[in-house]
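Ticket #4471: structure export looks truncated?
Reporter: QA, pipeline team
Priority: medium

Steps to reproduce: submit the single chain below to the structure queue and open the exported record.
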Amino acid sequence: MKSEHQWPPAWFDPERTALVTPTNVRSLAHPIRMTLLRLLREDGPSTATALGARIGHSSGVTSYHLRMLAEAGFINEDRERGTGRERWWRAEHETQTFTFRAPGAAGDAEQIEVAEQYLRMAAQATFERVLAYVDTLSSRREELSELPWQLGEFSLSLTRQETRELTARLQEVVAPYRRDQSGLARGRGGPDGDSGATSNRERAVFQFQLVPDQHLGARAHQP
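Actual output as written to the record:
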């Protein structure tokens, strides 16, 4: 049986998950590309023109970044939807995971610096999604007592093996609720495409970070 300290871990499915490492992260380490890839994954196939309108850039700028994503293997052309006038693009995978542990892909000093930039952008995008929810609270006053959404933080003490076990268990818990595992995006054309006034289903995002506690304030009392 494969142990969790080896790569890939048991939960990794290369057919569904794009593997991002320091050796290929440069192609993704751009805020426009990260946004475009997220929109294609969550809302389904689209065109450079439609995507550009959503993110506030011209179709020329959007087309350039879509081509960069395609060359890196993160997206591909949806030829069934495409016409002679405009290309349609679709995400190649349902999700992605970043790791330093893939054999032969640990990266050199320059690649690790780019990986840091990518992870900062990913962390910022995660933070902005939380703030977007918080910003809606005043307009949802009547339903606040019924909302199931929550933010949580737990201080843990873990060995590295326990950390791997916790990650694997969280993957197992979330898996049954992942509508994207049908191979379709969550939005238009996907499992959530028929959500409407009569549906009690809401699109949601599960955010999970498990990192060492480097917060300086937590150590201010130490000599």
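Status: closed, not a bug. The export was complete when the record was re-opened. Leaving a note from the reviewer for reference: Residues 17-193 form a domain with the Arc Repressor Mutant, subunit A fold (CATH 1.10.10.10).
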